[in-house]
């Protein structure tokens, strides 16, 4: 049997009991695979790598070394939550790297979205490699590969986690405990492992993070305004009971200003755009009809609390023709 093919007999993990059973099996397998050797994991704070981290901490404790890179493009509180959850609560061996300046300096003046993506991806690999070169005695690399990654790699598109080991791969092997699971199963397993629901049920978040929501050339002041506005949106959607009802929502900040007026003075401030979509397959999206009162309250809060913003807009465009992200 190919190890990358989910057996037809494998039951879908839909209950805590099934998740428990899966976790016990994986703990056993991982312990057999790695023995007393060390395992390295790049921990983003996203669903997949977080669940792998929690599972491996249970299986091999301090033999797992997690590396979290803060590229300065995380949402408000995200890196802090990784530290709180994994270092403080689960007592993981966590290396936290604040590479904000490195990323933002490199991105300075770069307006083209594809170039921004390439810079962020390339720099991430560099930072991760530099950090791991300093570590000694690591034998395995753990990855949050899930079954759709394997399926997609077979036909649709290459996935960075999948496709065999590169020639210069310096580890003895890969540890991929959730590679036969679908996303919904990973979430059930994560909950049973005690991860908070805002981590386990997290919306999709692009690899380049807020970097592609701070349109054009990223500036620190606009990035700050974007992060604050996004946090307000998330807080208010949560209060209004929309977090579970809307598939994805976030804010975007364009790289142009608009005229505002404050205390009788004219100002040139940025607009903030709210983007919210519902979808089943991410190929076709509709825009939810959010209660006007909720939108108005969010607008008031952003205008009052976020420096440099004078307008808030709601994006009504479905996909197609508009994509979910703005760039
Ligand atoms: N800031 C980061 N710090 C550490 N590792 C990261 C970071 N960003 C990405 N990674 C690593 O790269 C992998 C792929 O990242 P990607 O953004 O494509 O997310 P993903 O496939 O949805 O996985 P996840 O749910 O774990 O974020 C992650 O699983 C993680 O191992």
TrEMBL record:
Record has Flavoprotein as a keyword: no
UniProtKB keywords: ATP-binding, Glutamine amidotransferase, GMP biosynthesis, Ligase, Nucleotide-binding, Purine biosynthesis
EC number per UniProt: 6.3.5.2
Stored InterPro entries: GMP_synth_C (IPR001674), GMPS_ATP_PPase_dom (IPR025777), NAD/GMP_synthase (IPR022310), Rossmann-like_a/b/a_fold (IPR014729)
Residues covered by the GMPS ATP-PPase domain: 17-202
A single MF term (Gene Ontology): ATP binding
Pathways involved: Purine metabolism; GMP biosynthesis; GMP from XMP (L-Gln route): step 1/1
Pfam families, A to Z: GMP_synt_C, NAD_synthase
Positions bound to ATP: 44-50
One GO cellular component term noted in the UniProt record for this chain: cytosol
PROSITE patterns: GMPS_ATP_PPASE (PS51553)
The keyword Glycoprotein belongs to this UniProt entry's keyword annotation: no
Role played: Catalyzes the synthesis of GMP from XMP.
NCBIfam families: guaA_Cterm, PRK00074.1
Name of the molecule in the record: GMP synthase (glutamine-hydrolyzing)
Lineage start: Bacteria, Bacillati, Bacillota, Erysipelotrichia, Erysipelotrichales
